[in-house]
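[[Per-residue structure]]
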Amino acid sequence: MALIPVFLSVVFVVKNQSCYIRECLTVATREISSLASDYELIVIDNASDDDSISILKSLTGESGLPNLQVYALTKEVDADTASWVGLENALGDFVVVIDPMLDDIAFLPAMLDKAVSGADVVFAKNRQKMSQSLAYRVAFSVFNGIYKWISGVHLAQEAPQYRLLSKRVVNFILQHPQPTMTYRHLPATGGFARINLDYSAVPKFTQTKRLGGSIDRGMRLLVSTTRAPMRLVTSLSLFGAVANLIYSVYVVAVGFLKTDVAPGWVSLSLQQSGMFFLLSLVLLVLGEYILHMVSLSNDGPLYHVGQEFTSARMTRQDKLNIEEVMTQPQKTGSMLG
């Protein structure tokens, strides 16, 4: 098969996979090198505490794998943040994010074919799922239902983790103040040409996926990628203010029209409704202020790269960020009149 004339970046996120990482990267290099004319393999080690770092360092040596770039994080971060480390440092025309234990790299040619045909975003969803606990499945369905109701996107079906992005999509995400969070949903909601593909492959990872490790990530994703939760708070505050104002009018009307009103009821009711009216207004203003500050905030980097290794062997055909200037040979001598 002829090589596709593109520069392809492939991002792997790994953690404590020293038993599989050498074979996995060797297979990946063989697949990628037979697919694209230029490529790089970016490995993000998510703070492994086994022998992964030493193995990755050996793979970047003279006798190791070509075009391998390794970023070792000093502390563990969520999968989206770790993926963004690779995307942020990728140089390719197209960038692929793969979980080597769950996703099938053999499906990459079909994804790249769609990308070079004009798609800026290609999602691939594996029909075969890893084992999940009952609590995880229930919470997963509820979360995706709520997120689809809020944003119109079902993350699991319409924006899976296995994805190929063009460089202009990556640059678009970079313009947002918190790209590590918007990366998860923005390719599906940014208006780019998008294709969703399905495939079937047995996941290499056999551990049961449980609920505990995903609750925090799901809540951060829900809160940080949409204003709907805070907008619900401000809407309820506005409703409370209006309801207390209407109730105050009702109390005044009763005081004027009724003669058998209990002593002190009017003044007590007006006092309570007035206090709740002011409290609702305060919550409304605070909610809007928080929304405004969140839209402007940037909490800084969420990760730090502790070590970085680059392959001693590089096979890139073109020089990057270098402009060659042709110079004209200088003539010697002088013109005689």
